[in-house]
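Why this split exists: single-chain examples teach little about how molecules sit against one another. For that reason, every record in the complexes split bundles all components of an assembly together and asks for one structure covering all of them. Below is a record exactly as it appears in the raw files.
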Amino acid sequence: MTKDEFQQLAEAYGGDVARWPAGQREDAALFATREPGFAQATLAREAELDAALDALPQAQASRELYERIVADAPAKRGRVRPWRLWLAPAGVSAALASVAAAGVILGLQLGQQAAAGAETSAQAVADLDVSAVAEEG
Amino acid sequence: MASDPDEELLVRIADGDPAAVRALVARKLPRIHGLAQRMLGDSAEAEDVAQETFLRVWRQAPKWRPGQARFDTWMHRVALNLCYDRLRRRREIVTDDPPQVADEGPAPDRGLAAQDTGRRVAQALAKLPDRQREAVVLCHYQELGNIEAATVMGVTVEALESLLSRGRRALRAALADLVER
């Protein structure tokens, strides 16, 4: 490793050789034994910038954000929970409409799965993405 | 290829395991939020990017195939694409005012000097060209290896090193009174 190469790596990756590309660390260590003054001065200079960069304040993600993200995750696949539709606060008519809509959506998806070459109808049902069916309540 | 540490959680998430959902969010949210915060310099936008990134994670989890890529790499790419969408939108709005750097408020365990340095670094980072800032954020703050960072950025390692060197030189110039030139 030459002086230029050592300096270029330090200018790119900073003053901590442990953070340099793995394939370069051994050569860098050998270079530092041959040119200790140059190596130490170069690394110290970059370490000073590293320390300044580390002063950047890190905003913490809020608890509310965490909970919103978790709430966005889909429910367990394959579970339509039809009983929840009947308990919808909007009433029985809304529940009936939801069941009818679910039936349309499931029917369309079964048709698509058949066209896509699902091996068996049972497998096609297991593969359905029922997260597309809105849940009431 | 070393096994992906996120793979087991993804399999459980695809099966609808709520504990796995919480574990993945706990593991990844600080990284993705931090990435977006440093790229955009705006807390509200960083939260939006983080939430949208995870929406894509929830859609992708059932389709994730082991060995196709590291999940963390893919997640970084998704978050950065969302950041760049916002950066492009900013440029479409003609304004003389640069984006305001988020004021994090007083930190009880940080001295005033450290707070000032932090604010100066935030301003200097915000003024970097986007790709230089991305390189510095990925390597210095996200601590990605050079190959992984280059993969995320879609560039060669040589190009990554050029971006890093130029970015660090520009930061050094902006912080000249704090660090040796």
